[in-house]
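step 3/5: co-fold with iron/sulfur cluster
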Amino acid sequence: MTISWHNDDFSVRLAVMGARRYEKVSYPLYYGEYGVVETADCLLHFNRENEIIRAKGKGADWPHRNEWLKRTLGDDWLYYSTGGYTGVFEALGEFYLPNLPYPTNNLLGGHPLRDQSVRRLIDVWPDVLAECQAAACDAPEEIKEFLQLCLTNKPEKLAAKAQAVFANYGGRPSVLPPDARHVDYQLIPIGISSGCLYKCRFCEVKNRMSFQAATEAGIARRIERLKTLLGADAANYNAVFLGDHDALAAGGGLVIETLARAWRGFHLADAIMLGASAFLFASVASLAATSDDFFAELARLPYDTYINIGLESADQETLDSLGKPISVREVEETFARMQSLNDRWPKLELTANFVFDDDLPDGHYPAFLRLTRDSLPRRKVKGSVYLSPLKFDQPSRLKTFDFHRLKVASRLPTFLYLIQRL
Ligand code: SF4
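step 4/5: write tokens
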């Protein structure tokens, strides 16, 4: 039940229940259970561990009344912008564009994180909170306690917690699957492997580690530690990310075992957010090594599962120029199997990434259309294809025009891949 209190200068609301399902809507929708502190100038949201998770300015200088800041589990402040509502949904499949505070391959949007009022709110929210706490002498005990607890979660403590989450995972996840947009990237990160199989030359997110699967005992320890780190706010999560760059290569058995353990460990059946999703990356090789039995077993688990595979190109010259050590034949076979699996398993979606750049060999885009248009008898609603710009921090109107041409021609849902880290 929501508890409220206010004086002339600010108000506090505890246990506010936001939306319990992720939805794609063109107005601000806040998820899960949270607490609110509202002054004349700003709105601050806190999770069930009394850590700030959202902030929004109310002054005339705030860029847009329907835009807000979100603080991630990795302690990044993102700015959710409408992008003027023009083209963001078509490009990303979402109504809001998360503007990220680090270099990425985004083609859209401006630089709202450089806006003075946005920067100021990121800096001053602890002071705003401290003023509210000092002025809340007449408030009921639970309101005073809430403000006091929020105040103990200072920026340094939040940063240290993010580091603890990364250490528990096995390093900071440098990229999340594009499908994580379906849960607003609100994921429980469980590292079940490290490294990847290919070490492609073009890739900006790879690490130096050779591929290694974690042990079952190690994963169990990671889940236990993460339960402690997330604390009461674990109830606001209903999605699991199995890392790292090729979790399926760790073996279908380990994937199933980890998902089952996470379901029990995080009490996902009782989560505030309804439904449950699992996200992971796979590769051409790891999918080829995975039998259909795995997918039958996966279908018995209570998750909607999204598996994302970097195919990159169906043109050999492009694959070679990217330093991706796979053949066109493998790409075509993988793509065909992905379609077949998507057709057979309703709660499973395999999605693919292809590179997107001005300077690729001439054969790349015709080969892309051979797969995504010519090889399919009709349009499909499942099996998204993500075009991933190769260059970081180089927005280009011309490229978004090319993207729209490919999107219209493709018979699969086609979007841009915005690389986002945890
Ligand atoms: S594209 Fe994937 S497989 Fe290739 S180096 Fe990057 S993470 Fe590894």
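step 5/5: annotate
The first strand starts at residue 3 and ends at 6.
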